[in-house]
Write a structure and sequence with these properties.
85 residues; Thrombin, subunit H; 4-stranded antiparallel sheet; mainly beta
Length: 85
């Protein structure tokens, strides 16, 4: 059984569900599931929030940006802090 960690409502009432088994999309009629089997780097999604046309996913491997329209995923990397000489 998958544990639901967070639910976010996107444009058009689409629900995005963060679980310990991946990310699930519900459009009111059908479910789509995204996981490591479909290209996510991990199945553990702790949190999901809207960021413009994308979702930000808090995972066990860092923060991921998920393109809602194209179902594309990318990492968000922290910049190195600048050093004062």
């Amino acid at each position: 059984m998958r544990q639901v960690n967070r639910v976010a409502e996107g444009p058009g009432g689409i629900l995005w569900i963060a679980t310990d088994g991946g990310l699930t999309r519900f459009d009111g009629g059908s479910f789509s599931h995204f996981s490591s089997a479909t290209g996510l780097p991990t199945n553990v999604i702790y949190d999901v929030c809207l960021a413009g046309d994308d979702l930000l996913l808090a995972t066990d491997v860092g923060v991921l940006r998920f393109g809602m329209a194209m179902s594309l995923v990318g990492s968000i990397r922290a910049r190195e802090p600048s050093r004062i000489a």
